[in-house]
Every structure is written in structure tokens, then in C-alpha cells.
Design brief:
By secondary structure, the chain is an alpha/beta fold. It folds into 2 domains: about 25-175 and about 245-260, Rossmann fold (3-Layer(aba) Sandwich); about 180-240, no CATH class. It has 7 helices and 7 strands. The protein has a 7-stranded mixed beta sheet with strand order 3-2-1-4-5-7-6, with helices on both faces.
Length: about 260
């Protein structure tokens, strides 16, 4: 059983196969393709009718995966996305009785809470004995959701968080390696470079409209030439090239299952 000292990793390291079941969408975005495949597998393991809470669910992208179960979702009051949820709350104060759920989904959320241990302890409270936390976290991601972006995680960090939350880290897996990272970040960089000089947002940012127009004219040819190549040729090529990286020390992040025992 993994401990803080030896967090055993699934040696697959997120690999989805030479042609993933998520198809072209997963080739273009293997990070989210791996997270979706992880949740599909975990949903299949849960009994029909099991109670599932999607904590910090955002736009509820995984609701359909849990159609056999009793799926609930929650998010922060005034969260990032406009979506209907069963209730709103802070994740360190979930308004549900003890032992309410068989599983809690927590995907790409833990980096946005100021106290991850408090959140995991609260999730443990609402889990039934034997219940599962279905978790994904980033290790290498750009700043997003500011100012609500506090942490990045390693598998060793997850093991320590589980220990301090009285949960058991049952499985943990890397989300690819250096090539998945390069494939995702290079197109993102071109898009973000252009976006930060957007003339329509210049006044809101305290920028000069004239300078923003000039920079847009300079950067637009680079974007128009570089983005299609990086997004539609380089990015899928990186999906397959990732098999060359055996260590995966530049992983995008992790998926993990944590158990409540007793």
C-alpha cells in the first residue's frame, strides 16, 4: 500500500493506446482524455444507484459518465462557470450529513482551494466507509482561475495529503510526460501571447490601445502561421512521441483514488 515514502505509480503513466478510445479528441488533448478515461473506468466500478458527489463540478462535464449512479454536483457560490448544481458551498463545509456518498469526484479542483487538507477531511466526513475519492490534480499547468490558484502537486504530496486526511492513497498515475507537456503548452503559448495584447481589453487592463493594436499586428502573422501547425500537427505528433519518455518527470499531473477505511 503506497505511503508517503514510496508512492507507487501505475507504470502506464496515462498512456491511452496508439489510438485512444476517446479518438481524435483524446489525441489532441491527452491530459483531459486520460482524466475522462479514468472516470469512465471508476464509474464502471461503482454500483448502480451509488451516491456520487462531483465537488467543484464547474460545467458538470462528467455527469453523463455517472448516469447509472445517483449523481449530485456542487460548486462555489459565484464560481467560475454558470451551471446549475444541486447545491453551492465551500468544499471545507459541505452541507450534507456524515457518510452521505459512496464516491466524491474532485478533478482539477484541489489546486484552487487554500487548505487542501481541510477539504479532504471534509470529503472524508461525507464519504461512507469504503468510499472513494476520484481525484485529478495538475503538476505542470499555467496560472489559471486567478487569484484562486494556490498549488501544484506531486504524487509524494498526494500521499502526504492522504495521510494527514486519514485517507488511503490506493492508486496514483502520471498524466503523460514531456511530449504531452510540450504538445499542450506550445499552442497555448501562441494563443496566450496574442490574447495578452487584445486591443478590445486594453483599457480594462490599463494598457495603451495603440500599443496593443501594434503588437497584435506584429504577432498575428506568427499566430496564423504557427497555431494551426502546433495545434493540428505538432500536438498529435507529441501524443505518440511521449512513448519515448520513460521517466515522465515532466508529467502534466496525476489521477488518484483515495479510500476511506472505517
Amino acid at each position: 500500500m503506497p505511503t508517503r515514502e514510496t508512492s507507487e505509480l501505475n507504470p502506464r503513466h496515462g498512456w491511452l493506446g496508439w489510438w485512444p478510445r476517446g479518438g481524435w479528441r483524446a489525441v489532441l488533448d491527452p491530459e483531459n482524455g486520460r482524466i475522462r478515461a479514468f472516470l469512465e473506468d471508476e464509474a464502471a466500478r461503482l454500483a448502480a444507484g451509488a451516491r456520487v458527489l462531483d465537488a467543484g463540478a464547474g460545467t458538470r462535464p462528467y455527469a453523463a459518465l455517472f448516469r447509472r449512479q445517483e449523481y449530485h454536483s456542487c460548486d462555489m457560490p459565484g464560481g467560475f462557470y454558470e451551471a446549475r448544481h444541486d447545491f453551492e458551498c465551500r468544499l471545507d463545509a459541505i452541507p450534507q450529513p456524515d457518510a452521505s456518498y459512496d464516491a466524491v469526484i474532485l478533478t482539477q479542483v484541489l489546486e484552487h482551494v487554500p487548505n487542501p487538507i481541510a477539504v479532504l477531511r471534509e470529503i472524508r466526513r461525507v464519504l461512507r466507509p469504503g468510499g472513494r475519492v476520484l481525484l485529478s490534480v495538475p503538476m505542470n499547468s499555467p496560472l489559471h482561475g486567478e487569484p484562486w490558484h494556490f498549488f501544484q502537486f506531486t504524487h509524494h504530496g498526494l500521499a502526504e495529503l492522504a495521510r494527514q486526511s486519514d485517507l488511503v492513497l490506493a492508486t496514483v498515475e502520471k498524466l503523460g510526460g514531456a511530449f504531452w507537456h510540450l504538445g499542450k503548452r506550445f499552442p497555448d503559448t501562441l494563443r496566450k501571447l496574442l490574447k495578452q495584447w487584445d486591443p478590445t481589453r486594453a483599457r480594462k487592463r490599463g494598457q495603451s490601445v495603440r500599443i496593443c493594436v501594434g503588437m497584435t499586428l506584429v504577432l498575428l502573422p506568427l499566430y496564423l502561421l504557427g497555431y494551426p501547425v502546433s495545434a493540428w500537427i505538432w500536438r498529435p505528433l507529441c501524443y505518440w512521441l511521449d512513448q519515448l519518455d520513460r521517466e515522465k518527470s515532466f508529467t502534466l499531473g496525476f489521477t488518484a483514488v483515495l479510500h476511506k477505511v472505517g
